[in-house]
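Hi V.,

Quick status before I head out on leave. The structure for the redesign project is tokenized and pasted below; the design run finished overnight.
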């Protein structure tokens, strides 16, 4: 019994350290050779300082690799982890690059554009992450209702962490705080909590120091991984409760995003 418990702990430590190591290595490699040039991955943060977005791609890579190779996970869970995290990170990276100059924020703005036959990068992100969440949920759960709830939780968790990425360290800190209770769980939930925590821990220092930021790529990837951990550790009641909370958070966040976008537009006009 003690040996089994020890193996569980070692598995979580391995996932945490593996994610952290890959994330740091990826950050270093991206700084040396940023895809498309350094300027593509540079942004001004809330304080007007120039930061890079390398932490986003790096945490997506580190989380996906650690989750997909964590010891003791069923094959379907590994596949679901790779699918959800890489899709969330990829869609987020697309929005980071192609939506950088788009002032529209919130679901309603992107859906309104879609009705006018304009496919924004935000719409690609919305539907891409949603589809990946549903596909990952279908791999983990057996019953149709559970598959749907799992998809909502995975996509909703990705969106929640992204909503928190408005100041240095907030999203990464939230991942560490939200993931910590999951480490106490047995089975896949504990391992899947350790992976995003390790990736977040690897970049939070640079994030707080305003040298890098997670951006949409990192925030969505880390959130999707946390969503997977929640899905594997809960039955239908737990999934329903989490799904309801995440939908409510998304609705509030959408209103806040639209209000903030309106304020920015007003200031620009006044200037």
């Amino acid at each position: 019994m003690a040996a089994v418990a020890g193996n569980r702990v070692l598995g979580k430590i391995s996932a945490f350290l593996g994610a952290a190591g890959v994330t740091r290595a990826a950050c270093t490699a991206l700084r040396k050779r940023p895809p498309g040039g350094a300027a593509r991955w540079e942004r001004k943060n809330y304080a007007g300082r120039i930061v890079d977005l390398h932490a986003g791609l790096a945490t997506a890579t580190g989380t996906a690799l650690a989750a997909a190779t964590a010891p003791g996970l069923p094959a379907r869970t590994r596949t679901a982890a790779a699918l959800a995290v890489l899709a969330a990170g990829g869609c987020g990276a697309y929005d980071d690059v192609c939506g950088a100059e788009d002032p529209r924020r919130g679901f309603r703005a992107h859906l309104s554009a879609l009705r006018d036959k304009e496919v924004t990068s935000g719409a690609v992100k919305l539907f891409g992450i949603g589809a990946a969440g549903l596909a990952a949920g279908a791999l983990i759960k057996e019953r149709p209702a559970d598959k749907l709830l799992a998809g909502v939780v995975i996509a909703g968790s990705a969106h929640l962490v992204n909503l928190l990425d408005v100041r240095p360290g907030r999203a990464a800190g939230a991942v560490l705080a939200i993931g910590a209770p999951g480490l106490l769980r047995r089975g896949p939930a504990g391992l899947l909590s350790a992976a995003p925590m390790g990736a977040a821990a690897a970049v939070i220092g640079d994030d707080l120091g305003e040298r890098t930021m997670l951006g949409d790529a990192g925030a969505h990837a880390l959130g999707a991984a946390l969503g997977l951990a929640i899905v594997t550790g809960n039955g239908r009641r737990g999934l329903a409760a989490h799904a309801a909370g995440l939908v409510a958070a998304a609705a509030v966040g959408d209103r806040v995003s639209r209000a903030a976008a309106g304020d920015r537009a007003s200031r620009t006009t006044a200037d």
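Above is the designed sequence. The radius of gyration is 18 Å.

G. will cover questions while I'm gone.

Best,
W.
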